[in-house]
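Re: [ENG-882] Designed sequences occasionally contain unexpected residues at chain ends

Forwarding the minimal case from QA. Structure tokens:
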């Protein structure tokens, strides 16, 4: 019997955020840019489209819009939350959670990763990690 693929599709609004500024600090983002980023990212609009194991995630803030597309199980190029190019490898951690390790393409920096998980009550939980700092953002469908 084949597992049903969790559907992350939809428009999402952020309900809560913990440790975002601490994450940026761990990545070495200066205080001025951290303040701008924290303010801009306080109410991001996230839109996810999905076809089977291929996802496209559009995140819009007042400062910038990012788009990332990937297929679970295949490495792809993206940028870390602070804008450094990396190679990412997403995989199913559980049937409702995708985890992704990021490897910098050049230079040094803390180990970065993210996860996206759909909970039983329909929330989307995004975690972003830099070294030992974990930022958790909870979203609900619009």
């Amino acid at each position: 019997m084949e597992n049903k693929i969790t559907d992350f599709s939809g428009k999402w609004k952020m309900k809560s955020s913990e440790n975002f500024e601490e994450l940026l600090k761990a990545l070495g983002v200066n205080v001025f840019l951290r303040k701008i980023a924290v303010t801009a990212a306080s109410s991001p609009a996230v839109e996810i489209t999905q076809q089977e194991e291929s996802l496209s995630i559009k995140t819009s803030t007042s400062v910038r819009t990012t788009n990332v597309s990937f297929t679970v199980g295949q490495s792809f190029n993206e940028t870390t939350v602070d804008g450094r190019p990396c190679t990412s490898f997403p995989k199913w951690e559980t049937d409702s959670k995708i985890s992704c390790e990021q490897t910098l393409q050049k230079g040094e920096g803390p180990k970065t990763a993210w996860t996206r998980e759909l909970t039983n009550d329909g929330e989307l939980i995004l975690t972003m990690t830099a070294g030992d700092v974990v930022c958790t953002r909870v979203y609900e469908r619009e």
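QA comment: On inspection the terminal residues look reasonable. The first helix runs from residue 20 to 26. Proposing we downgrade this to a documentation issue.
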